[in-house]
Amino acid sequence: MVQIHDAKSPFLLPLYKVYESNNIFFCKGNIITGPNIFFLLLTYIIIIISVLPIYIITYIQIDSSFCLTVALVSLTIFFILVLFFLTTTAFCDPGIIPKRNYVDLSLPKGRTAFTTVKINGTIIKQYWCVKCNHFKEPRSKHCYTCNNCVTKFDHHCVWIGNCVGNRNYRRFFFFILNLSILSTIICFIFIGIFIQLCIKENGSLSFQPILYTIGEYPHITLYIIYTFPSSLLLINLFVYHLQMVLQNKTTYEDIQGLYSGNNPFDEGKFINLKKFLFNPVDKMQVEWKDIVKNITHILILICQKYY
């Protein structure tokens, strides 16, 4: 007979194995990410194939110099930082709010049901989440990709494969910052390589030598065409998120036009930035490794026995 207190009992499982969400777990529930693992791997591949050719090209075709050495050292530092912040953003609980496994019959329910809360003079509606069986906290939203309500929901980022919320937004911000710098460094390195090859092969930067270098080294030209607009887009994305930080506003709130007239969470640019940079990360609300009763397994055994 199986004992209910036995940790290896099929009736007992860690919460992450029975929790109703689309998240993927690793290392016995210690690591969590969203369901878009393919796009996360694709992001890693794109970043790596954008950086590695620089080392190969500079080693084969470019004479060593002090400026090149500084550029390559900077490239390596920001490459490592990008991978670090990408990993810590993707494999992080973004602030998942625990579902309720029961429904209080006294509470109004349905998508249109709501309660109100007053924050800094502004009345905020808290709508009922039919998936999680609770009223959504202020600034939270249910992500239908991950099937979770997330505190201070910013957006679901396909490229990192996870939601960006209260617990990982700061890491996402630094990922975008370092990726913008990395992309700009890559672009300038390739422009420098192109100029050096042009002077080396033709002795000048006039129109004809430039055309000759483009034809002789098309891979360098293609990398410049690829990295230049990418750098501009990433810098623009970083500036946008910097504005959101200074206003203490999320991407979702900005897109939906919430608090456009009076943002009750805005405490001024300096305080907003200070809290964003130095406030400790909130603890997880869901203890994924907690042992819980496997109700599904119990019901299956009952059905097998009596039906």
Key features of this structure:
3-stranded antiparallel sheet; 9 helices; 51% helix; elongated
Strand content: 5-15%
Question: Structural class, from secondary structure content?
Answer: alpha+beta
Order of strands, main sheet, comes to: 4-9-8
Mean pLDDT reading: 86
Helix percentage: 40-55%
Shape category: elongated
- E-strand count: 12
Q: Spans of 5+ residues with little confidence (pLDDT < 50)?
A: 1-6
Instruction: Please report the number of helical segments.
Output: 9
Helix-strand string? EHEEHHEEEEEEEEHHHHHEH
Cα end-to-end separation = 21 Å
Query: Radius of gyration, Cα only, in angstroms?
Result: 26 Å
Largest sheet, strands/sense/barrel: 3 strands, antiparallel
Question: What topology does this entry show?
Answer:
Blueprint: E1 12-14, H1 15-18, E2 24-26, E3 31-33, H2 37-61, H3 66-90, E4 96-97, E5 114-119, E6 122-129, E7 134-135, E8 141-143, E9 148-150, E10 155-157, E11 162-164, H4 169-202, H5 207-216, H6 218-247, H7 251-256, H8 269-278, E12 291-293, H9 295-306
Antiparallel strand pairs: 1-12, 2-3, 4-9, 5-6, 6-7, 8-9, 10-11
Helix pairs in contact: 2-3, 2-4, 3-4, 4-5, 4-6
